[in-house]
Known about the structure:
The complex is a heterodimer of chains A (about 625) and B (about 220). Chain A is mostly helical. Chain A has helices spanning about 1-15, 25-40, 45-50, 55-80, 80-85, 90-125, 130-150, 155, 160-260, 270-280, 285-295, 300-310, 315-320, 325-350, 355-365, 365-375, 385-470, 475-490, 505-515, 535-550, 590-600, and strands at about 520-525, 560-565, 575-580, 605-610, 615-620. By secondary structure, chain B is an alpha/beta fold. The longest helix of chain B has 14 residues, at about 170-185.
Amino acid sequence: MTRQLRAMRSSERQSVSPSPDGDSPTDEVNRDSMSELLKVPDLPDRIRQRDVSSATAVRLGVISAVCGTAILAVVLLVMSSEVLTAPTPLTVTSIAGLVGACLLCGIFTGVWVWAEATLARRAGGVGLLRFLCSYFLGGGLVGLLLVTLAPRTGFALRGPPALTIVSIAVAATCGAVILGVIHDGRNRIQRVRDELVAQATDVVLTGTSQGTEVALLRQTLNAELRTSLQPHLDAAAFQLAAEATRINSEVTASAARLLEDLNDASVRPLSHRLQRRAISAGVSVGPLSFIRGVTRHQPFRPGMVTAIFLLTSVPSTWVNAGFPAATVSALVGSALIYLILGLGNVIMARVPQWHSVIFIGFFVLLQVPWMATEAIEDPIMSASRAAGWGATVAISACILWLTSGIGEWRAQQASLLRLYADDIDMARLQLQAQDEVVRALTKESARALHGALQSRLAACILALDRAAAANDPQAHAEAMGQARAVLAEPWPVSDEPTTQSTLADGVRTKVDLWQGIADISCVVTPDAVNVPNNVAHIAVAIIEEALCNAIRHGGANTIMVRVSTAGDHHSRELRVQVTDDGGGVSGPQRGLGTAYLDQACPGRWQRSTHASGGCQLDVTIPLEPLETETC
Amino acid sequence: MGQILVVEDDGFTRMLLRSQLRELGHEIIGDVGTSAEAMMLIRSSRPTLVILDLDLGPGPSGVDVAYAVRKFVPSSGILVLSTYVDIRLIGDFRPLPPGAVFMVKRSLSDVSTLEAAMAAATDRELAQEIHRLQQTQRLRRLRDGQVEIMRLVASGLSNAEIAKARGIEEASVAKAVARLISQLDLSSTHARSPRVLITQAYFGFVAGAMPTRIGTSTS
């Protein structure tokens, strides 16, 4: 990576076109390939690595345990206030038992959140292990403790223990999920967002320091050449300053846009961006897609809800209405749960702000033990009681589908954060590309000022001196005219042909440049002369790259360049072949040259090493059919 | 001295160099502006000394030509001229071929320096001695990586970006920056950012001198 980067930089410097506008297609190609090379692949990884640490897991667990206990205790005490107005030994025991159960549920909540966080950190996501640990082990633990406590609590004695345990387990489960997941998710999103904001700030700072660089260079140039070349310096400085200002303002504007997007206090902007950019890739709406989405993304949560449903509702239906009815209700209920969970995902993805609904649902769910107690006190299965049961199940399902929606929502937000990271990467790449352009521009202007311009002016001064010495007004006028011409056009005319009339001319120019460093022979077949200008440009650029590589890296003495066309009128292609006698390449070695070919070559390319040493590059560029071509 | 070939793309400098060498009584077998012409002359007439500009415009650079001279006419001495005190400053990290002598263009005006450099370029042992002496200069003492970090700092990159570009830890970049400060004898007691000091030093080296202040007169 580093080597490529450095090679890229040096090549950028050497291959840059001397024309100061820097907008020729070669530059575009170079910039593209550079962006490709400069791409920073590890940012999403870093975002993933920023998952909870073990200390955070413990902290989350403790917070969740305290919060869970407090909420449960408050709600249960409020629910039992009627009983407390007329206390009997039995109700006091019952309340004491409830408070004990609250404490246990709180501890369970804490342990579960800790386990979730830890396992998520280790396994990097939802898995069977996580589910088993967090739900069945935790739930089993609470159940066992409650059963142990049951004989001593009036509350538990008044209803079937299994029902109570299941109800409390459901409540505790939901509490844990809500507190832990929301807290954890918020924290993580906040951290990642802060990091992204810091990066965006960094981008702004870099943009500013680029302006400083240009300013410094300008000062250096000014100081050195002020006396003799003031007008041209001003022109160059203007050009540099204009370019720097333009680049700076572009960079600042794009970074400001990023900052604006990121720098809102809540997570809501994220969710809005989510709606615009990530939703289309997320869950699509459709009756079956709900179920598909849930099964694919959260295979365990619907199973959990279904299990609760089957445990709580189906046995009573079986007892009261018989086996067929129980089977039908189990099937319909399970299908309904999957559908509801899918719908939950969609709703959470579209309106993630609704997580407050979950809190409300949580309090509603805490009515479950009370409802159960009431139902047990009246053992006859009345219509109102059946409705109560239905409501309980519906509420449990509701809570859990909202909860499962959070998982989906978080997954989508993670992908959204990756999108942001990509944005910032892209901005930085653009910045680096602009940096290269500024560098090339300043170097070109310095060279022009130092070299060509200086000599042209010196020639004018000599001519003026001669005219003055000879006292020849006409020669003097001519010299003045020359000097004015130089001043009017301070940038020397580019040595490199900007428009190549034919492919052959372009190839010939490049070969002539490198001729002598190695013996280069060049054949352009007559049929290859009339190829379109854009193809010719690419072919010439590829040939120069190949020549440069063969000489610098291969140490070649003899190089053969052959350009020809092949195929019939319907599928023509341009073939470029560069053969050298250098050291060749061992194996599939890749570097700047190959990256350049990947970027620049619109066709295929192949590099082979001869057994006798030397290297051969074959490039094939498809041409448009002859009929559509201008002749 | 023998036969000398001058390769310099800038016509003015070429003319100056030629007239100066003539005045010193040397035999010039040619003065050319492109590498292709240079290589043709070198391979046909095998000059004793090739005076070579590092920057020859588009196409091969002076380093490419120097290597080609070493390859085709190993007996020729090579004197490489550059406006930069160290070519690594512009990101070219290829060393010159053995026996080639490097000289900053600014020193051309000093006749004795030019004569000494030409003598060294035709004498391998002397060339090595000169090379060894040049390596003890303050900038040459810096390793390639340090020069590159200097250039990147001057380009306005943050430590994190330099770390990413060079594939090293961010802490190492901070350390390298601190080491650069001490090795370049840049005192950071003026309550100025070390990055600004390094940037100034870089542009100072690029411009050929080491200014103590750039841009402070305006404040």
